[in-house]
Write a structure and sequence with these properties.
Elements (H helix, E strand, L loop, with lengths): L19 E10 L6 E7 L10 E6 L4 E5 L11 E6 L9 E9 L2 E8 L5 E6 L13 E7 L2 E10 L4 E8 L1 H4 L11 H8 L4 E5 L5 H15 L1 E8 L7 H17 L3 E5 L10 H13 L4 E3 L1 H4 L23 H14 L10
Parallel strand pairs: 11-12, 11-13, 13-14, 14-15
Antiparallel strand pairs: 1-6, 1-10, 2-3, 2-9, 3-4, 4-5, 6-7, 7-8
Length: 343
Amino acid sequence: MKEILYGKEMATGINYFLESDVIICRCNLLSLKDSKLRIFTAVGSALPVPRGSASFVNFETGEMGMYGGIIETSSDMTVRYSRPIGFKISEGHEYVIEMTKRDKKHTLKITDAYTLESDTMTVMPTDSNDVGEHWGQRSYSVDGGVTVNSFRNYSLEPYKCRLLIIGDSFIEGASVFANQSERYCMKMKEKLNGSCAISGFGGASTEQVTAFYEDYCKTLFMPDYVLLACGTNNLDYSTWLIAEQKLIASVRAAGSIPILVTITPRLDTDNSEFIKRTNAWIRDCSNELYIDINRITTLNFDGKTMNEGLFCDDKVHPLPFTHELIFKRALLDVSEVFCLSAN
């Protein structure tokens, strides 16, 4: 089993979609008047969903808080949670502000670097738009007498690990937001004693998953295996195939072993012909590992007809019980991943 190492620094100017990360900002407070610091992760208009996150420290009023999920920072920042800071703010002091997301829980911490007094605000969001998902590029803004000394962002996912899971809303957990531990990816992480990194992006196509693997996953993580849990949001076979083959090749070039997944039916659109071709291609890839999610989620295991009792009302996303089935199928289909004596 690989040694689990955490805390690899993340680059600037890249849209990240991680399960857990922390932003650390050190600043000097030259004066209290009109002084405010905002830290945010903005996804931008190219991805028009409010999954960016933003927090603030108002030094003048002595308040700290979090905004609702944001798209861009120019117009859509509305305070969702706020409260007084639990110690006195002093001019001339240095402060360390940390904005963290870990398994959906969001925290904002402020520490006076001179007195070492600190205060932490914690929010467990009600849904993925409540305070965002830390999606997007990391940045900050200041008002008044605040000067920033350093601004850094670190992944809290293990980078030297047995398994990296990347994918769409099945991985993000759109259907089990209230209990993220019910996701099959979290069950895998628990089975691997934490040696598993997760990056899920609801709504992502295979092309987008390929792009964020290229942008940051292949440099941020060093896994033995990479689970490519995507395809649900594709409909065009040729486009999917090009992206899937590129993603497989990129994973192999980085020294990892790809794991594919067969694609489930969805009833909000007709993807029957698409999944017929994609799943046949996946099952015929004798050299590639795959988890046959499609087989166990279709009626009478026919690979075509959705077993509606296993899916949410939207007839797209799996129920908690279905996540458990997928996890059990993974233990069968890719048992070598969970052989803890390996490596």
